[in-house]
Amino acid sequence: MRRYCFCLQVRPERMEEYVERHRAVWPEMLDALHAAGWHNYSLFLRDDGLLIGYVESPDLAAAQAAMAATEVNARWQKEMAQYFTGIDGRGPDEAMLLLTEVFHLD
C-alpha cells in the first residue's frame, strides 16, 4: 500500500457548503471508491480554502482510472467542480496536485 497526499483550492465563499456536501456523500460514491482501491481516504480543509487530501492505494493512477470508469464519479465530479478554483475546466479528481512525501514515521 502506498500513501498519497494532494491539494486543491476550495472557493472560500463555498467552503461551508463543500463541508456539508461531504457530510452526506452518496452511498454509491463511497462504494465505488472502495471498489476502485481508495483506502483510508481523508480530506482536510484550511480556513482559506486549501484542501489537503490523503489516500492509500496500491496504485493511485489505477484507482483514479477505475473511478473515472464509473457513472457515479462523473456525476459527483460535475457537481463538485463548482466548489474549486484553478481546475481549468477539469474535474477535481483530474486537477489534484500530488505532493511529495518527505518524511514518514512508521
What kind of sheet is the major sheet?
Answer: 5 strands, antiparallel
Radius of gyration (CA) equals 14 Å
At the third CATH level, what is the topology name?
Alpha-Beta Plaits
**What do the pLDDT scores average to?**
96
What does this structure look like?
The protein has helices at residues 15-22, 27-36, 60-68, 71-80, 92-95; strands at residues 2-10, 39-45, 50-57, 84-85, 97-99. The protein is of the alpha+beta class. The protein has one domain: Alpha-Beta Plaits, CATH 3.30.70.
List the main descriptive attributes of the protein structure presented here:
Alpha-Beta Plaits; alpha+beta; five-stranded antiparallel beta sheet; 27% strand; 5 strands; 106 residues
Quick gist of this model?
With 106 residues, the protein is of the alpha+beta class. The protein contains 5 helices and 5 strands; from the N terminus they run E-H-H-E-E-H-H-E-H-E.
Write the layout of secondary structure elements.
Elements lengths: L1 E9 L4 H8 L4 H10 L2 E7 L4 E8 L2 H9 L2 H10 L3 E2 L6 H4 L1 E3 L7
Antiparallel strand pairs: 1-3, 1-4, 1-5, 2-3
Helix pairs in contact: 2-3
